[in-house]
Amino acid sequence: MSSNTGASLPTSSMPSSSSSIPSTSQLCSGKVQKEKMKVIFQVDGSVVGEYAKVWNTRTGDLVRSHIPIHYPDWRIVPDNFKNDVWTALMSEFELNVPPKVARPLAEKTWSQKFRTYKSTLRVVTKNSDRMTLEPKGVDPHIWKNFVKNESDPKKQLQNAKNSENRKMLKVPHCLGRRTYAQKQYMMEQEYPGKKIRRVDKWYAAHERPDGTVLQSARSKYDEVKAAESRRKGPGITGVGCSDDFEDLDNDELTEVFGKDKKGGVQAVGSNISKKQLLHVGVAMAKIDQDKKIIEESASLKDQIISHVDSRLDNFERVMQAMFLKLSSGKENVPPVVLLMH
Is the dihedral of CA 12, 107, 178, 215 positive or negative? Predict the structure, then answer.
């Protein structure tokens, strides 16, 4: 059997000890976290909330620690390694949805973290002594097979092609480890009630904390701003300009960068397609509609209760007036008797 499958290699996790895995307390300013950290899974699979950044960092740590690097393709990594990653995450984080629902969505990001880690190790494989230069904690057998995989001419050709594609990404952002979803969440917290468009997120992702724009993104930033100005001008119409609906085929980003291709959506994420995003939009619109109906029903209920209370108050005042009028001539007659007559 080919070494690429890794079937003959040890089935233990890559590190020899879990001590190399940063603890949750280390990731949280040195404070011991007795309670699980809460994160929010959205309908498109993105994770947001106060601890979203910690979730992303911790996921990367666990993928690097538990997934052996000699597997050439994420799809052939055995489930037991992935189970280890998920079990560790569930011991530290509390989700807003059932774990069974969240896991398939969470795993979409793991393959990228796996490839990124292997990419950082690839430079070592170019050393003449690469077979004996395994990183600390990596099983020597796993390392040797990783080096063999990376030395394959087809693999090297693919790596070179991927490297060239990355160089074509000339508009880097300054989100760091945050995702666009987390950026939107933060903007919604800062500006409650404001509709955050994807172009708003794109602007924010290319602006430094002091408001200045990344120099490498300045040209495209100005083009997007110009496109937005034209759409606000007279004579500009169309679904793409609606405040209630975003047409991803007709907005400022599409005008400047072209339509999104397979593999992600500009200023949204790389793990969701435009078609999936459309389905999410339909689901969210339905949720908002149902929420509005519930709120209107609750408001109507409050109005009815208020009206009934008002009528009862009026009825009570009328009855008291009648009682006083009747009792003025019959002081010794009990109220109940007076009401019966």
Answer: positive
The amino acid sitting at 172 is: P
Distances (CA, A) of 54 to 23, 120, 206: 11, 21, 22
What type of residue sits at position 101?
V
For residue 94, what are the β-bridge partners? 38
Q: What is the pLDDT of residues 115-153, one digit of tens each?
A: 999 988 887 777 667 777 777 778 888 988 888 888 888
- Kind and range of the H or E element at 305? helix 274-327
3-class secondary structure, 95: strand
Separation of alpha carbons 123 and 233, rounded Å: 52
Report the relative pairing of strands 37-41 and 93-95 from DSSP bridges.
Answer: parallel
Segments of the chain assigned E as strands: 37-41, 47-48, 93-95
3-state secondary structure of 232: helix
**pTM of the full structure:** 0.62
User: What are the residue ranges of helices labelled H in 76-215?
Assistant: 79-90, 99-106, 110-121, 140-151, 153-167, 180-190, 198-205
Q: Give the DSSP H or E segment for 58.
A: helix 52-66
CB 103 within 8 A of CB 86: yes
Q: Are 214 and 206 in contact (CB under 8 A)?
A: yes
**How many whole angstroms separate alpha carbon 132 and alpha carbon 147?**
10
For 117, list phi and psi in degrees, rounded to 5. Answer: -65, -45
Nearest to 277 by CA among 241, 244, 248: 248
Whole-angstrom Cα distance, residue 39 to residue 25? 16
Write out pLDDT tens, residues 104-116: 989 988 998 999 9
Q: pLDDT at residue 34 above 70?
A: no
Radius of gyration of the chain from Cα atoms?
Answer: 31
Amino acid at 133: L
143 in Cβ contact with 134 (< 8 Å) = yes
